Automatic annotation (TrEMBL):
It comes from Microvirga makkahensis. This is Signal peptidase I. Its main location: membrane. The chain crosses the membrane at residues 20-40. Pfam families: Peptidase_S26 (PF10502).
Amino acid sequence: MILSIKEREFSKSDLGMLLLAIHCLAVLGFFLIGSGAIWLRASGPAKFRIFSVPSGSMIPNFNPGDLIIGAMYSWQNPKPRRGDVVFYPRRGQPHSLVYVSRMVGLPGDRVQVISGRLHINGVAVPREQVGVYPTLDELGRPTSAPRYAESLPEGSGRFVIEVKGNKGSFDKTRAFRVPKGEVFVMGDNRDNSSDSRDSSLGTVPISHILGHPVVIVGPTASAGSGPLRARWQPTLAPLVRTG
């Protein structure tokens, strides 16, 4: 399974999508200026890049075929915010291979998955099922998975899905202690994500984080074609702060 996201080069057939992306950035700029918002953790102006999503490791929040507009900058703050979605390269791989995951564990945290439930510092992260989500299994066949509203500590809530219930490869892990200066990342598609639960991949150094998604632009999730949509990525709030 391809897990990295790819920087997208636009063709003429993508003109409508490109115009929509530019519109989204213009609206974002208006929002930032009008609200008096400031960039967090940014050393200098952010550079925007556009990526395509080839896999489903972040379903239901990022879908295959989505285009992500990302703000790329050097990560300087030693206190990242739990729940942020971030871009990063993996250890020992070229920085041209960019991955996207959600930070669930911060330096010093003890992270473990027990029977499919995320535990942080010995406490199960609260979650509530909110229906089902149409997706694909490992063989590409249509299926559905329970969708949960998960509330991370500090009030950061996100949707996650579990295709295999509590029988996935990483639904029972040892307790991981997050090292100083690093974060523990997981995909929102908990049973179809290769992330920090895999000891061969491990945690992500904060210094390796490249930036944040800001806006998602792309085709409908169900068919990969049809009406375009643009939506604010749920991590917009951690990216900016007013006042």
